[in-house]
């Protein structure tokens, strides 16, 4: 391997890693706030890419149907639990949030579609459409078992991922998509060819991580989220509702995953099931950060990207084997670094 | 239900299995074949997940290793499938042992994540190793032959498959009712108790992990020779979660749950494949996975217990037999009364800047009861943890029965002869009183995996049961040995812990605040028991902050305050010591 090739691989790896950073940061956010290891963020990213591709060709994206189905299910779940606990008067408000809002978003996209919107508008529409998915899934799937053990939540999360893969095939079909490039420009940096798309990915990753930092550091909502992450009971005593924090965390996480989907769509062909590996590799990055530290997660995700890039040069068939085998030493290292207190699981 | 009735039910079940090929259609037999094959994996997962508490997403990878191993032997190299079975088992168990050695020290969800990691890695390997057919798979796998008789028809291999299932069920059931199996059943609910009994949690975990992999290997071998064709798809992570689903829906705490779960999923799958195309034409493939994932999620939300444990509540329970007298277990050599048994010298433990235990020295002599007292925050519990190996000393020496123990693990200290109880009672609430006390005999018994599974340890087991019964009677709970421990009031739970500790025939019994939270009459009962033990010259170290309780009971007292030893002496001297009064009541003005 010459230094030229190494440089190209490194740049490629950093770009891939930057995409993982966005998903990984969302994963850490969700884990700290809700204790759910949300494997399906990769699917959310893939769905965003598929949505954007559909908008480009002027088709109504499958996401509309998916969001409507989930909105109906979530509304039923919410009304049922409100009704049972004798808080029926909250039902109109719940319906507005879980049913009306997603329906309005879907309707908006439907109306905007014939106007052949420009690319930035299409991107915004795609993000808008995708963002409700995970908060709705949270309401349907995770809210009823919010107090369950981390392990149970992990099993549910895995099952949910496979449900989403099935739904993805149902709503988007088996075809792979690749969207128009966001930019055609290219640069020469220190004698190495860098195209604009790569640069854009890295910049977007930095900008959105920065925005998240500002959100946590300087807004009341962000601080409330941090408080929930530190101690749910304590946060509740301070008037913060963990369920609401969870919803906000899912919205923010979806936005990050959505952006990563938009960035990856022009570079790789995305299928309905491409999200699994994307999500899991981001997850490896998140574990390097101990599922707690954002800078650690970012470094970990970039590391995974670079490793994958070099591994695929050495043996493209075995690159996944290399990346996931690496997780085991990382887990052992994490387990030694952060000896956690025994979670008393009663039988 | 009496034993005779239970035996009848079992015989009828086996006869029904044997008669099935004569009564059912070939298609039903094919389904039953798959039920049997998946049962093996699911039963392994019941052991691993439901009983030992390790959630594995990676079992499909083990099945794959075995299936590819036997396919390589029989289809590619033309050798006997039985040679394939040997390779399948050796290879799968070796891989499992290596993975287990590396990962089973991981805590909680880290461990489960590692199963996803190796499950994925191994899953990707199958399609990418040269010479194993790539993603197109391997065909022409021969059927299994017994002598010259080839099991090529469904009903022929049916008998082999179900013979395996029944044998596995019997052996595992034996194992679970043996010494090692009890240790396995104790793994869920925290490692502290397990280690304090002298059990190495790591080795028990590893044993269960390799057993589960072994069962997956059997299943993979049968699968390869039943379907005669393999490709990487059935060994991917999706299949891994399907097996987990079988074990959990069937009821992950019961071996039968594995079989019921496998049957439910296979028949449900079959039904879904029949009816989904009617509901949604052309979309059934996708919908199937959505339907299954949704069922699993709903199950995890609403009914985590599983089918078999739910149903068994309505069935009459088999009546267990009271342990009969048996030759006693070997006893330890107790030191002569008055000899120094435990010597603590300059023990120190810091937490960051806080010195919880500061150069504390004292000794316990054989046959005495020593009280370690002090107000809240004095460092008693830390001292206790140093003695039992739950924490390591920063400096200082602890010598027990002539052996330095400050670097030993909890399990090794327990084996050296220190038995303990817990301030917050640690029992297994779903196990019977007798089983809870039997746990204490772990260090005095030897039976391992093979002797447990084949019931070769019945004599030792009978002695252990008799010993446990004797200890239950000693604490006055001998009337209902098959009551569940969780149903006892706190006072009796404390006594039960002491019985468990006594069953270990310890050289030193250490009690951590045994009177905490007890009512007055419960305290009296406890005090009576301790007074009896004193008459029998059991050496006891009692950590307690209830002065009144301690004073009437102990021979000597060590008082701690702010991490240091304040003073030491007989109860009367301590009662009159100004420093002790100051520590407990504040200084006089």
Automatic annotation (TrEMBL), chain A:
GO terms for molecular function: transmembrane transporter activity. GO terms for cellular component: plasma membrane. It comes from the Bacteria. It is a multi-pass membrane protein. InterPro entries: ABC_transp_permease, BCAA_transport_permease. This is Amino acid/amide ABC transporter membrane protein 1 (HAAT family). CDD domains: TM_PBP1_LivH_like. Keywords: Amino-acid transport, Cell membrane, Membrane, Transmembrane, Transmembrane helix, Transport. One of its GO terms (biological process) is amino acid transport. It holds the Pfam family BPD_transp_2. Its main location: membrane. It is found in: Cell membrane. It comes from Chelatococcus asaccharovorans. Belongs to the binding-protein-dependent transport system permease family. LivHM subfamily. The keyword S-adenosyl-L-methionine does not apply. The chain crosses the membrane at residues 6-31, 61-83, 95-113, 119-137, 149-172, 192-216, 248-271, 283-306, 318-337. The keyword Transport applies.
TrEMBL record, chain B:
It is a multi-pass membrane protein. It is found in: Cell membrane. GO terms for cellular component: plasma membrane. The chain crosses the membrane at residues 7-29, 35-55, 82-103, 110-129, 157-176, 197-223, 243-268, 275-300. It comes from the Bacteria. InterPro entries: AAA+_ATPase, ABC_AA/LPS_Transport, ABC_transp_permease, ABC_transporter-like_ATP-bd, BCA_ABC_TP_C, LivM-like, P-loop_NTPase. One of its GO terms (molecular function) is ATP hydrolysis activity. Pfam families: ABC_tran (PF00005), BCA_ABC_TP_C (PF12399), BPD_transp_2 (PF02653). Keywords: ATP-binding, Cell membrane, Membrane, Nucleotide-binding, Transmembrane, Transmembrane helix, Transport. The lineage of its organism: Bacteria, Pseudomonadati, Pseudomonadota, Alphaproteobacteria, Hyphomicrobiales. The keyword Transport applies. This is Branched-chain amino acid transport system permease protein. Its main location: membrane. SUPFAM superfamilies: P-loop containing nucleoside triphosphate hydrolases.
């Amino acid at each position: 391997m010459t230094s030229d090739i190494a440089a190209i691989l490194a740049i490629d790896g950093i770009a891939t890693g930057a995409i993982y950073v966005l998903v990984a940061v969302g994963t850490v956010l969700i884990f700290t706030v809700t204790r759910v290891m949300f494997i399906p963020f990769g699917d959310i990213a893939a769905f965003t890419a598929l949505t954007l591709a559909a908008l480009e060709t002027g088709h109504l994206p499958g996401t509309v149907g998916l969001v409507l189905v989930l909105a109906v299910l979530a509304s039923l779940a919410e009304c049922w639990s409100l009704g049972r606990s004798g808080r029926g008067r909250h039902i109109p408000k719940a319906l507005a949030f879980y049913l009306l809002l997603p329906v309005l978003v879907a309707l908006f996209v439907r109306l905007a579609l014939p106007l052949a919107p420009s690319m930035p508008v299409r991107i915004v529409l795609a993000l808008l459409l995708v963002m409700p998915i995970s908060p709705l899934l949270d309401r349907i799937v995770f809210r009823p078992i919010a107090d369950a053990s981390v392990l149970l939540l992990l099993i549910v999360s895995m099952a949910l991922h496979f449900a989403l893969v099935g739904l993805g095939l149902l709503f988007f079909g088996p075809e792979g998509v690749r969207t128009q490039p966001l930019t055609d420009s290219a640069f020469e940096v220190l004698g190495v060819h860098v195209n604009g798309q790569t640069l854009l990915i890295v910049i977007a990753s930095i900008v959105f991580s920065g925005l998240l930092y500002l959100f946590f550091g300087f807004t009341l909502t962000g601080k409330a989220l941090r408080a929930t992450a530190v101690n749910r009971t304590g946060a509740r005593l301070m008037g913060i509702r963990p369920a609401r924090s969870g919803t906000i965390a899912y919205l923010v996480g979806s936005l990050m995953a959505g952006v990563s989907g938009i960035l990856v769509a022009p570079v790789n062909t995305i299928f309905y099931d491409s999200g699994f590996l994307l999500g899991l590799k981001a997850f490896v990055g998140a574990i390097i950060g101990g599922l707690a530290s954002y800078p650690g997660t970012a470094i970990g995700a970039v590391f995974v990207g670079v490793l994958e890039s070099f591994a695929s040069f050495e043996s493209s068939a075995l690159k996944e084997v290399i990346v996931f085998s690496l997780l085991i030493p990382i887990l052992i290292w994490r387990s030694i670094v952060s000896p956690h207190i025994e979670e008393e699981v009663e039988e | 239900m009496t034993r005779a009735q239970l035996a009848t039910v079992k015989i009828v079940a086996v006869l029904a299995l044997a008669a099935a090929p004569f009564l059912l259609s070939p298609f039903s037999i094919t389904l039953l074949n798959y039920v049997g094959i998946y049962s093996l994996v699911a039963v392994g997962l019941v052991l691993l997940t439901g009983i030992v508490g390790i959630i594995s997403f990676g079992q499909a990878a083990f099945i794959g290793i075995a299936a590819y191993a036997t396919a390589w032997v029989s289809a590619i190299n033309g050798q006997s499938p039985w040679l394939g079975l040997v390779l399948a088992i050796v290879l799968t168990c070796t891989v499992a042992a290596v993975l287990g050695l590396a990962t089973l020290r991981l805590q909680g969800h880290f461990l489960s994540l590692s199963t996803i990691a190796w499950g994925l890695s191994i899953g990707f390997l199958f399609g990418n190793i040269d010479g194993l057919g790539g993603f197109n798979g391997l065909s022409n796998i021969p059927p299994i032959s017994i002598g010259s008789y080839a099991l090529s028809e469904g009903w022929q291999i049916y008998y082999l498959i179900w013979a395996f299932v029944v044998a596995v069920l019997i052996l595992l059931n034996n194992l679970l009712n043996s010494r090692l199996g009890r240790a396995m059943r104790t793994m869920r609910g925290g490692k502290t108790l397990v280690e304090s009994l002298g059990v190495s949690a790591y080795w028990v975990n590893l044993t269960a992990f390799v057993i589960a992999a072994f069962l997956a290997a059997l299943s993979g071998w049968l699968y390869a020779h039943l379907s005669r064709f393999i490709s990487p798809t059935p060994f991917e992570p999706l299949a891994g979660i399907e097996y987990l689903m079988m074990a959990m829906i069937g009821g992950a705490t019961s071996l039968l749950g594995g079989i019921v779960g496998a049957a439910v999923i296979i028949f449900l799958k079959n039904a879904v494949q029949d009816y989904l195309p009617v509901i949604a034409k052309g979309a059934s493939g996708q919908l199937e996975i959505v339907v299954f994932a949704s069922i699993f999620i709903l199950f995890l939300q609403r009914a985590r217990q599983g089918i078999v444990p739910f149903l068994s509540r309505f069935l009459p329970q088999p009546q267990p037999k009271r342990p009969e007298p048996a030759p006693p277990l070997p006893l330890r050599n107790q030191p002569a009364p008055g000899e120094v048994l435990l010597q603590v010298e300059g023990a120190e433990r810091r937490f960051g800047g806080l010195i919880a235990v500061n150069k504390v020295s004292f000794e316990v002599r054989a046959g005495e009861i020593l009280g370690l007292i002090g107000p809240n925050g004095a460092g008693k519990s830390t001292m206790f943890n140093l003695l039992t190996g739950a924490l390591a000393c920063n400096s200082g020496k602890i010598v027990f029965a002539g052996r330095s123990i400050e670097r030993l693990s909890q399990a090794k200290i327990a084996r050296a002869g220190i038995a303990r109880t817990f301030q917050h009672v640690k029992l297994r609430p779903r196990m019977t009183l007798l089983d809870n006390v039997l746990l204490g005999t772990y260090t005095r018994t030897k039976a391992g995996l093979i002797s447990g599974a084949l019931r070769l340890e019945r004599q030792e087991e009978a002695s252990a049961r008799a010993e446990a019964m004797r200890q239950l009677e000693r604490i006055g709970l001998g009337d209902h040995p098959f009551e569940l421990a969780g149903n006892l009031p706190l006072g009796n739970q404390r006594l039960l812990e002491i019985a468990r500790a006594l069953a270990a025939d310890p050289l030193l019994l250490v009690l951590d605040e045994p009177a905490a939270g007890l009512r007055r009459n419960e305290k009296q009962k406890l005090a009576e028991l301790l007074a009896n033990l004193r008459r029998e010259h059991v050496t006891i170290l009692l950590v307690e902050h209830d002065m009144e309780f301690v004073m009437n009971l102990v021979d000597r007292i060590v008082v701690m305050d702010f991490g240091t030893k304040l003073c030491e002496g007989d109860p009367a001297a301590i009662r009159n010591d100004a420093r002790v009064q100051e520590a407990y009541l504040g200084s006089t003005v």
